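Box S2. Input/output pair 1.
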Amino acid sequence: MFSAKASFLVSLCASSALAFTPPARLDIPLLLSPGGRPMMGVGMSSGQVQNFNFTFTTSLGYTAVAGDGCQDCSGTSLYDMSKSSSAKSLSGQSAMSLGNGTFEGSLMKEDCQIYISNGSSWAYPNQTVMLMNSQSQGAPFEQSISGLLGLGTLKKPTNAAGFSASFDDGLYGQYYIRNPDASNFTFGLDLKPSPVIPGTGSSLTIGPNAKSLADSNVGTVHWLAPDQSVYQSDKVQWRQVQDSVTSGYLTNNTQPDLTVQLDKWSATVGNNQVGQSNILVNVDPYYPGIYMPMQQARLIHDAISGSQQVSHSTIPGQTNAWIVPCNTQLQFTVVIGQQSFSIDQSVLVVKQDDGTCLSIIEGFTDSSVTQYIFGQTFISQIYVIFNIPKDGTAIVGFAPRSVSSSQSRDIGAIVGGTVGGVAGVVALGLLAFFLIRRRQDNTFFKRAAEIEEEHKVASTVEPYTFGQNLVAHHDPLQSPPAHPHAPLLGLHDAGPSGVAPPSYEEASESGLSSPRTFPRDSKMTYRRDTLMSVGSPPESPNHTNFSGSSAV
């Protein structure tokens, strides 16, 4: 742990020594697709911008978009290469697997931009992109999702996708080419729990208690820098990425670039406790639940009286889930260094349409899979930071949420590092009790004096009976710390004038912002007839060795 933290601090110091001004944090809002995956707004082409909804993954370092030649794509917008002035074809075909889906297509170079919360954008040009033309069931390109943003590192050159890919083919490599004095690329995940529950279909199943999915906010990616207001920065536990792992991952999938080793997990069911030490984990918001080797998942569910293994899954063909009694008391804890992060049954047990309940902890059906995946719902209980340096090994940080951030979420989690917080709550409770009792006692004595004055007789006073205790109320559905946000996804074209939204650089220099708030049609795409601008761009960071905010 110390070496990982020391490496991160040294790299940050090196950044300062080289006179590179770290960029300001950008907030990328995440909305929920109708299919249940988190998505962000991405524009493609530096000319006539084509705008799409992209989901994202840390398991792959590649970017892919559904092309207009895709025969297997429906219910989503398709990229048209003929409309782009910046796209360049590359030789070769590629095929990729993610979860239980596969997709393939040709390769190209394209200029891209990610839309941020104030309506402007962060540009990342010259990306290697798969122009996807076919996919299998289980691939993400459906129900308004047109693309996949890979946040893996590609640090290890690979031919796994059918072409020779290296660090420079990914988002981070191109960032360092544009910013040669930069030493680190960092982002944090501030997510809400996934509404997806294990199901029996080829697509994801949404729980019956989920709200309307259209445009619902599922969190924020804090881009280029973490947001220290939403986590306890003094309790971050850092773990180095395991570069040498080559086996034990999902069938037909490549080993994720950002796999880390954590100390252990344990599960408590009544008086029973089970667990496992030294686990290899891929932390990826593309997946909704918690996934582990079948033998370990059975240890947990065998301890739950009345549990039953079923074919329900959120990675069909790769995992199984368990039906459990709806009154199950379960706590799942992950130990990372000096912190323990725990989740209880309010998150782990979900209800189906028929009233029965399922556990979101799933087991891999392939016995050769020995690794773990912690998906969106687990991530939502903590704060996760990814740091990808130009040189050296990437690290991942895990931190308890700040008190204000945790209280604003309807998550029911028990997060580690709470001893001081509990003491504070007890002290406040005692103070409140004293003040209420004092106020009530004063009322009693005042009333007793009035009675004695009125009747002029001695009387026996009955003991005062306290009423129901007052309970402090907060809205469990409150969002995390507010930031400017409005739907920004699904644009098809550049608006009535045919002019693309300004880049982040242009917006910063001119004071304009990219159009992003539009009425939607039935496919969740925006109509161009009521174009309007929202928000204002952030102040441009003070860079010294490159020009323009879009280069960050």
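Box S3. Input/output pair 2.
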Amino acid sequence: MKYLKAPFRGINSDVQGRLQCYKQDWVGGWRSGFGILAPTTYIFFASALPVIAFGEQLNRDTGGSLSTVETLASTAICGIIHSVFGGQPLLILGVAEPTVIMYSYLYNFAKKREDLGQKLFLAWTGWVCVWTSLMLILLAIFGACAIINRFTRVAGELFGMLISVLFIQEAIKGIVSEFRVPGNENLNPESYLFQWRYVNGLLGSIFSFGLLYTALKSRRARSWCYGTGLSRSFIADYGVPLMVVIWTALSFSVPGKVPVGVPRRLFSPLPWDSESLHHWTVIKDMFKVPVAYVFAALIPALMIAGLYFFDHSVASQLAQQKEFNLKKPSAYHYDILLLGFMTLLCGLLGLPPSNGVLPQSPMHTKSLAVLKRQLFRRKMKESIKESIKRKASNSEIYGKMQEVFIEMDHTPDECGVVKELESLKNAVMKDENKDGNQKSEFDPEHIDAYLPVRVNEQRLSNLLQSLLVAVSVFAMPLIKQIPTSVLWGYFAYMAIDSLPGNQFWERMLLLFITPGRQYKVLEAFHASFVESVPFKYIAAFTLFQLVYFLLCFGITWIPIAGILFPLPFFILILIRQHILPKLFHPYHLQELDAAEYEEIAGAPRHSVSLSFAEMKEPEDAETPTESGDDDAEILDELTTSRGELKVRSSSFHDERILQVHPESSNSE
């Protein structure tokens, strides 16, 4: 309510907070040197591949009005603007699946109207973007971000599950289309003969499932037993784009007698073709749109504004989770304001708008946490080795390490840093007697486990990856060589990879576990609600979500009314606040709809026979570690597929957080 009485208050607070650290945002990036290139390339591939896939989907769903060129251009333009002028530079922007869905509905509506048609489709969507931007700007001015905490886990996971199912649906539709004659391509008619369509379909199935299998395997390379830490880390970070390249290369190994067009490849005009140039001047056609349709654009604009507000804010939340220990302030209100202006710009240029995306945003933060950890490790190891050469005591070694950490951390709260380094102090001092004599020296190789999480908060990596996306627009002759079937496999990969960490999905799997096998769940790391909530309430809550999910999915199949598919998610806010508390015990509801993903360590049962797992080394034994890979592997284990950090504990406890608040002041 305080923002309604004082408009611009949230925006003003955000701007003042970020201006104080704007210079440091750039200095921190340049000081990282070439090390900043690792998170830059990592997040570039994670961002560019989905945008390319969405471009092909838009090309099919809009009759060629939009293509990969437009999705890449929008992602690049909005990414550059946000990296320079945005409030939270860790947030990654891109064209997302909700935008593709909404534009598909808008196209199906426009093409059936004689006074709109395909010719004025982009001009009409320009008006939709105008209204959307106006709504987003008003939401920012009046501090609507203060209520984003009302979108709890139940809504977020339902939305994530819907997107996953739509990905699977698109992958299935794509594979089936490989056996049919395409609608908007003009290739060799010989490739449309039945036998060649059948061959194309079989090849497409091989490429799709091959990409899906190898991408899922490479994504989990850090847990492999084979290879060095460096090679496993490289495959885990870049394996998916590498698999796209490999399967694209394999597509050229077909016999020479196979006609051109088998297998089918990505169909998109080049950036300099007339088909890609007309939308830059779409603003001149906007005044040709009938007035009735200008005001009718308010309806889809309302849905899109709500979607962007929700998606953008949640992506920003997960990019700056409290477990990342970020030191710089958030800027939720200002970022929504900037999103409104970027949506307006994209609409006037005939581009699909970009907004904050998952899981790329928290992936970006995680990659910068690894980089910062490596910088801390290098400096602190140097101080340890220097102290050992001087034959310093363990207490002197720790004192020097603390000085180095505080100096690099650039934080005024030294007391808080000392508290965070308590475990490191205990590890260093454990081998020192009470009289100050030390029994052994602290091994600098063991420092990784005791360093608190720090993130290299800067703007350079976001700017560089956005520039790489811009360069990709002019690499379309190469991108067009990717088989469409590889993209269908990538859609399936995105769907399956997003399921782990979605508690709605995990609870559905739990329903199929017989009582006699449920102990298996408790042996491994498991969500806290498994122990704290009776099974019948878990089942009831899951069935409620399943029915609601089927309702949301059913709406997407309604030809014109499907554009209202975001509406059930807004209604879910009221259901969560007023109806569910009457059906479930508040404590059970708090556990099942918790803000944090909390895991409890399992108690595995030991085998009768002696296994490698039971042959533990003594606690004092020193084991070699691959420190270069430890950081990323540890963060991988503690991060869900949507980028949410898990809170792990060794036993069940009652302290929980009911909601996620974007900023503490919003709770007032």
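Caption for Box S3: The first strand starts at residue 93 and ends at 94. Strands lie at 93-94, 355-356, 526-527, 597-600, 646-649.
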